[in-house]
C-alpha cells in the first residue's frame, strides 16, 4: 500500500497556495521512501522551478517508472523529470 497524497491540478500555482519547494521536496522524498515496492535509498529529489527532478540509481526494471509515478501523484503529471539509471 502506498500513501497517496492530494495532487495539485496546477502545480505552477503551488507557491501562491503557500507551498514551498522545500515542502514539495520533502513530500516527494517521504512518498518514495514509504513505497513498499521501491528501494529509494539511492534516489535524490530536487526541485528546479516548476519541476521535480529525480536522480540516482534504482535496481530493478520498472523502478524508474514507479518512482516517477509516485512523484507525479504529488506534483501532477508532466512536472517530474526522471534522470534515474538502473544498475
Low-confidence runs of at least 5 consecutive residues: none
Tally of helical segments: 2
**DSSP, total strands:** 3
Look at the helices and sheets and give the structural class. alpha+beta
Silhouette: globular
What is the helix/strand order? HEEHE
The neighbouring-strand order within the major sheet is: 1-2-3
**What do we call the CATH topology?**
Histidine-containing Protein, Chain: A
Strand content: 15-25%
CATH-level-2 architecture: 2-Layer Sandwich
**Number of domain units:** 1
Largest sheet: 3 strands, mixed
- Percent of residues in helices comes to 25-40%
Question: What is the highest CATH level, the class?
Answer: Alpha Beta
Taking all Cα atoms into account, the compactness measure Rg is 12 Å
- Please report the distance between the alpha carbons of the first and last residues: 25 Å
Output mean pLDDT: 85
Domain BON: 20-87
Pfam families: BON (PF04972)
Protein name: BON domain-containing protein
InterPro entries: BON_dom
Amino acid at each position: 500500500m502506498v500513501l497517496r497524497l492530494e495532487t495539485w491540478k496546477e502545480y505552477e500555482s503551488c507557491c501562491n497556495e503557500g507551498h514551498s519547494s522545500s515542502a514539495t521536496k520533502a513530500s516527494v522524498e517521504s512518498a518514495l521512501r514509504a513505497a513498499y515496492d521501491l528501494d529509494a535509498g539511492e534516489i535524490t529529489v530536487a526541485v528546479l522551478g516548476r519541476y521535480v527532478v529525480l536522480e540516482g540509481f534504482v535496481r530493478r526494471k520498472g523502478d524508474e517508472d514507479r518512482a516517477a509515478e509516485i512523484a507525479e501523484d504529488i506534483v501532477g503529471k508532466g512536472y517530474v523529470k526522471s534522470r534515474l539509471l538502473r544498475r
